[in-house]
Amino acid sequence: MVSHLDDPRVVEFDVRTDEMLVNMGPQHPSTHGVLRLILRTDGEIVSEVTPFIGYLHRCAEKIGENLSVRQYVPYTDRMDYLAGMNMNLGWSLVVEKLLGQEVPERGRHVRVIVAELNRIASHLVAMGTYGLDLGTFSPFLYAFRERERILDLFEEVCGARLTYSYIAPGGVTADLPQGWLEKCAAFLDQFMPVIEEYHTLLTNNAIFIQRTAGIGVLSSEMAVDYGCTGPVLRGSGVDYDLRRDGDPWYTKMYQGYQYEVIVERQGHYPQDHDYPPVPPEAVLGDSWHRFYVRMLEVVQSVHLLRQAFEFYRAAKDDCGTPIKLTQRLPKGEAYLETEAPRGQMGFLIVSDGNAVPWRVRARSSCFCNLSVTHELCRGCLIADVPAVIGSLDIVMGEIDR
Amino acid sequence: MAETINLQVLNRLLGWLGVDLPANHPLGLAMAAVIQCALILGIVAAGAVFFIWLERKLAGRIQDRLGPTRVGGRFGWLQSLADGIKLLCKEDVMPREADALLFRCAPYVSFAASFTAYLALPFSDGWVAQHINSAVFFILAVLGLEVFGVILAGYASGSKWSLFGAMRESAQVVSYEVPLGLCVVVPVFLCGTMNLVTIGNMQSGWFTNWLIWHDPFTFAVFWVYFTCAVASVNRAPFDLAEAESELVAGFHTEYSGMRWCYFFMAEYGSMLLVSGLASILFFGGWHGPVPIFELLGWSHRGGVLEFLAQLAGAGNFLGKAVVGVAVMMWVRWTLPRLRIDQVITTCLKYCMPLAAICFVGAVAWQSGVFGLFEAPLWSPNDLLAEKHRGEYREHWVLETAERDPAATVAGGRQPLPSARSGQPVSQPQADAWEETAVRPSSLTDHSGEKGGTG
Predict the structure, then answer these.
(1) B63 touches chain A (CB under 8 A)
(2) How many CB atoms lie within 10 A of CB A212?
(3) Is the peptide bond before A277 cis (omega within 30 degrees of 0)?
(4) pLDDT tens for residues B357-389?
(5) What is the SS3 assignment for A6?
(6) Quick check: B272 and B317 in contact, CB under 8 A?
(7) Which of A343, B154, B236, B309 is within CB 3.0–4.6 Å of B293 for a Cys-Cys bond?
């Protein structure tokens, strides 16, 4: 899109009085950080949306080429700061793939536990902020109430509440503390009934359905074309989850676990609870479906966690030891994508044989998810723009890196 | 209230000072006006302070938080006051692009509209700044002016977000005025008057006499009224003009400090106003669920006891109004916001037809479904039956005549002011006076004066 008129002299004679260019962001309450959108509006109708990114660029990839792989872990935390564990996991796995180093059984289950717990926390934020985008404040605080407890659990595990650096190449920094599993299980038991409250407040709410159903419909073809992943892709009805379909180096982490990939099959979502059904207004691939997929994924994560507790108790070995800072990497390159809460988070590492990688690159899930914005927002109303952006659940830290 | 202040308080005060001011001396009236303005301003401002505190506290409790707890003791009573001081001390920023004059005017236009509407709102039997026979009409009309402040603010801010907010506000408020008016018409025609004091007094007695129980249609129309009232005062889920997640802060994006505070006070003032109007039109106003003071016989005894009964009535009225406001807050902290097209759809497709159906239904009910039944159909509040209404009017006119026999001539009608002042009167003016002719007699001289000066 051209955000200015091509020939400035034309303005004098041919002012378009019916259109207005509005700058939304980078400081705007509902652009989820520092996203900037240029809206071309005709009254309330938005004819064109152009996202501008880069306001949170911190050279994360270049930094990775100046640090040893172990030192780079804290930088991955700061990419998707709402899912630090999953970022740590992606980086650690790709380094392990390059090293060819397996993590002991117990470490594998600890990783599943913290990654899935963080997925719940991340989806809670997605749900809460989506409520904010639609103008309801309370679900946000309800979501944060539960997330707070997850952060407390993480604090016990690794001392940090947001940037954990807990999963490191070679294992995890420390085993789970004594009695932590019981606390976590107690949290899950209290959390399950709360999910129904969220559904009552949002999913089933008539106004919520009016605001989201049929808004920002992303067809499965378009989702695949733009490289959308995660709940955005599954919300469009594409049955694809890296935990099941990904790189063997990643999928073996989930070996032995029973869970459903949340995607609509023949008009039905796999669900073992009595959560609200799909309203007749909702079209597959719209904002409502993306939201709903996240809500159901939370339940699957709870199931995964409960299984992981059993596996963890059964595993008698250790959690693995993180590699040393000076550990030299073998010559070569490795690329691995993991299923982060927002989609496929890929890391590429190229080594020339030193401890410091020669190249580090990250493949952002939110970047691809955001790239469909201009397609989804074409012809919608201004109020729908936050509704669409919110349903894509972007984190600018991950897009700009 | 004017005559009370003028005749009793002022005269007594001046009597102590040794000054003998004749009744309805312009100076006395001016002083009465100042006192009343101060009273209403106090109610609106104190109301806003209280409601901001209440909103924060309610929102906090709804959201599993505590809300304010620090300033002013355990419940944070003084939080709004602290906020007010902060707002007073804030720098008053005006964007360079703004239209300076309009930008400065806008908050006052908004606030003045909300504030002026209180002029006709009775707080208890006869406790009203200005007895206006068309009080309902006056309140709706003046409340509608509030939108001008918002449009001015949006236009003058020189910000696109503000402009969007103003556009939305104008579209929304203008649409919702129509069903709101239709809803208000139902109790008005049931009572046969637009005088809020009369409407309130016609619902005296037990809570079954409240108009909301009069027939199914008044019951239904209350909910339509409440929806429209929420929309016309711009509260969630209809708070599109300041839709935070879309328009940053809508029309008041560029406002800060005290100017912003005026918009805020106008909003809370309007909330109390529409809730108060609902409480008079549908919930008996100052007449409680149980007529304690009438059973005790204090209501018309005069003196301190009657004053106490009146005061309790005012408390009763304010209590109902605050419940209405609290429900608005509850709704705000629960529901997502509607989209502009959905807001207008709600108005045109649901509120309008519903209000119209309720209106027609209430008419049919009152007339015994066009003569099929003895009119009207059964209703718990028998006071409103046709013959009672006539009696009530009769009683009311007689009562006023007793109080001030000189002012009332036969049938409760007063001679037109023109007849007294001898000035030529245009037909619209005469109509206006005709309209205001039936009113508590003690105000006769006001209308006379209006005729003289107007």
Answers:
(1) yes
(2) 31
(3) no
(4) 988 888 887 776 655 555 555 555 555 544 444
(5) coil
(6) no
(7) B309
Is B181:B106 a contact under the CB 8 Å cutoff?
A: no
Find chain B residues with C-beta within 8 A of A381's C-beta.
Answer: 339-341
> What letter does residue A265 receive in the DSSP assignment?
B
- How far is Cα B437 from Cα B411, in angstroms, rounded to an integer? 11
Q: Which of A339, A319, A168 is nearest to A247 (CA)?
A: A339
Long-range pairs of B65-69 with CB within 8 A, sequence gap ≥ 24: B65/A141
Predicted ipTM beyond 0.85:
no
**DSSP annotation string for B15-64:** HHHT--PPTT-HHHHHHHHHHHHHHHHHHHHHHHHHHHHHHHHHHHHHTT
**Structure tokens that stand for A172 in this block:** 């995890």
CA dihedral B31, B34, B39, B40 (to 10 degrees): 140
Q: Taking CB atoms and an 8 Å limit, are B160 and A136 in contact across chains? A: no
Of A223, A180, A209, the C-alpha closest to A392 is A223
CATH number of A60-400: 1.10.645.10
List the single range of A151-155, B173-177, B224-228 with lowest mean pLDDT. B173-177
Which pair of structure tokens corresponds to residue B200? 């309130």
| Cβ pair A105, A328 in contact under 8 A | no
> Does residue B391 surpass a pLDDT of 90?
no
Which of A36, A137, A142, A212 has the most B C-beta neighbours within 10 Å, making it the best mutation to test the interface with B?
A137
**Distance between CA atoms of B208 and A284, rounded to whole angstroms?**
51
Domain residue spans in chain A? 10-52, 60-400
Residues 6+ apart with CB under 8 A from B187: B199, B211, B218, B281, B282
Residues 6+ apart with CB under 8 A from A386: A30, A31, A133, A134, B245, B246
For residue B412 the two structure tokens come to: 């409760």
Is A43 near chain B, with CB under 8 Å?
yes
User: How many whole angstroms separate alpha carbon B118 and alpha carbon A49?
Assistant: 45
Within 13 Å, how many C-alpha atoms sit on residue A85's CB side?
A: 25
As given in the structure block, the two tokens for residue B440 are: 């508590």
Q: What is the rounded CA–CA span in Å between residue B265 and residue B249? A: 16
- Are the CB atoms for B27 and B21 separated by under 8 Å? yes
Residue linked to tokens 């637009």 = B194
Smallest CA-to-CA distance from B439 within B176, B194, B106, B212 is with: B194
